[in-house]
Give the backbone structure.
Amino acid sequence: MTAPQFLTLHELVKKARQKLNHDNWDYIVGGAETETTLRRNRLALDSLAFRPRVLRDVSHIDASTKFLGRTLRLPLVLAPIGGLELFAPEGGGAAAKAAQQFGVAHMLSSVCDPGLEAVAQAAPDALRMFQLYTRGDAAWVDAMAERAIAAGYGAFCLTVDTAYYSRRERDLAKRHSRSGPMPQREFQARLTWSDVARLKAKFALPLILKGIATAEDATLALEHGVDMIYVSNHGGRQLDYGRGAMDVLPEIAAAVGGRTPIIIDGGFNRGTDIVKALAAGASLVGIGRMQCIGLAAGGQAGLVRLLEILEQEIHICLGLLGVNSWAGLDRSYLHPAPPVSTGAALSAFPLLTLEEQAFY
Ligand code: FNR
């Protein structure tokens, strides 16, 4: 067996940076306006230390989990990302195939090539979910839900934190526009809870709301019969000056009280980050930018390698905490602590050096 090309996560980041042009790199790492929400995602995670327990037999670690009736090798979902074709020619197909090969869940964005039917064909056995940006009226949304059901998707997700497209200054400063006029975007701004009620009444497919950031909205979601709460601030790419996702989780976990699974994303770049989320009550963690980085570094194989390294980090973390499965973990393993970094999209990789120039 040959030695793997990538031994650490930061090597994958470095390779991705080498392969991408500046516009596509900025598309991955950027956030909205001051990028405060983006930084807070990392700071929230960096502000938690572990309280490890010792002298328990941890010679066998099982980091798998059950989700939507399936067994996943890790409690991860590849978060919905628009435009994955910018990073790997097969786009969403490459990500879904990596999810299938490794054994994690996949959520396809409605603005990702080659589209929901082709991605379903590329990875028929993956646990696939479909995320929609609303670009039409109720009949248009229903038609998309029907296509997702016909193509075998296991859940339907509405992203609800994107009523307006944010100002991404990395793009604006370079005159690189992704946010040009798009009249259909108005449909996203018009969404209300009555649309959620309508979808729940019409379709049996489990419904997820992505972009929940308060206990109040989590409670409303449960009252509307939503099947899963997806805690997210869109990786700091939408509302600026939001709270870090991990800071939001405790109030959501308290409001949900175990009645539905909770998915969370935003800055989860290391195995330890994922362990913190599960200890604080999440069922599944979404991988956003790191998914783009894995694909850009080495396509499907690069993404699988990234998941392998995360798995090693998770196994070691669990073992050193004195637990051998997720069932043994709870909030007592976490403790507040001052962060040692100032938080940035890639601050989880202290050994990373990128040859960056001033572009703005
Ligand atoms: C996203 N995100 C996103 N979310 C969504 O619901 N639909 C989409 O099409 C996209 N597109 C997208 C593109 C890119 C390049 C990024 C980085 C992110 C948000 C994504 O699903 C997720 O919420 C965040 O990326 C999670 O934060 P991290 O893991 O990137 O820190």
